[in-house]
Each structure stands twice: as C-alpha cells, then as structure tokens.
Design brief:
single chain; about 110 residues; mainly beta; 6-stranded mixed beta sheet; 4-stranded antiparallel beta sheet; globular
Length: about 110
C-alpha cells in the first residue's frame, strides 16, 4: 500500500498561483502513473492531470495551459503548479496512484 499526503493548498486571489505537493511513502516501488483530481462542493470528483512514470503528461481541458504536473522520483513527490487561478478552480485537490490522499483545500476568492 502507498500512503499519499497532499500539501500546499490555501486561499488565493483570482489570477494567483499555488503549488501543490503529493508525497508518497510505503510501497513506493509500486508507483507508476500518478494523477491529480479535484472535487468542488456539490460536484463529483473530476480528473485534473496525469503524469506517467516517464513523465508524460495529460491535462483536462479546463486546466490545460494553466496547470503543470511534474514529479521528482528521487523525492517520491508529485507537484501541481497552478497559475492564473479562477474561482471555479476552488475545490479539494487529491492525488491518486492506486490509493487516495486525504486532499488539500484550494480556495480562489477575492
């Protein structure tokens, strides 16, 4: 089993930036592709971005061009750089790699 811990969320104004981190521990040798998801209040959890073990990336249309997913395999950590944030990006952000993290809250508001 892999344990995933997200961090880096917070309150930011529209147009601002945040960088989320997801630290993995446990059976990390099992980790292949990793992903970010988010869940806004009253909505279903939705996929945001994926990064393969060889760092090939894919993005949801709503975040493409604004968000960047990356990973540091030496540190067993995945990142999500979020720029040009919008109020509709407000959600709890989760990392996923066969198991779920506990989530970190991102609030975009003036």
């Amino acid at each position: 089993q892999v344990q995933l811990v997200e961090s880096g969320g917070g309150l930011v104004q529209p147009g601002g930036s945040l960088r989320l981190s997801c630290a993995a521990s446990g059976s990390i040798f099992r980790i292949g592709a990793m992903a970010w998801y988010r869940q806004a209040p009253g909505k279903q959890r939705e996929w945001v971005a994926t990064i393969s073990s060889s760092s090939i990336t894919r993005y949801a249309g709503a975040v493409k061009g604004r968000f960047t997913i990356s990973r540091d395999n030496d540190k067993n950590t995945m990142y999500l750089q979020m720029n040009s944030l919008k109020p509709e990006d407000t959600a709890v952000y989760y990392c996923y790699s066969g198991d779920w993290g506990q989530g970190t809250q991102v609030t975009v508001s003036s």
